Request: fold
Amino acid sequence: MADLNHILKTHGLRTTAIRREVMQYFLNEGKAVSHQDVEGAMPKADRVTLYRTLAALEESGIIHQVIDDDTVKKYALCGTECSGDHHHDNHVHFKCERCNDTVCLEDIKIPHINLPQGYSVDSGNLLLMGTCKSCA
Ligand SMILES: [Zn+2]
Ligand SMILES: [Zn+2]
Ligand SMILES: [Zn+2]
Reply:
């Protein structure tokens, strides 16, 4: 069980009930979730507070944006190496076309790609689509 207070503290965030609750939700889900998903799971929480909570967690390197083929923004928990200064989420994301879940494949790094001269990469994302292990 991850120590949520410790994670918040090492990322320079004060512990609040809502931050803990949102992080716990991410941990329980274990997949990329949207703002709407978080809202749906916490109907009593104030919308603006939830929005700010997600923004603070992203800015602090606790969650990262997951870009899949859905139009809604999704987020997932970061590995321990992310900080407020820099996200290091250079892993592959996998979207299952059967259950529609998108997950982080933390151990599968995005391969280095040789670009033409003059181009430099700041960030990237790689989405693979197919069938996940629960649906296989
Ligand atoms: Zn990150
Ligand atoms: Zn699936
Ligand atoms: Zn990810």
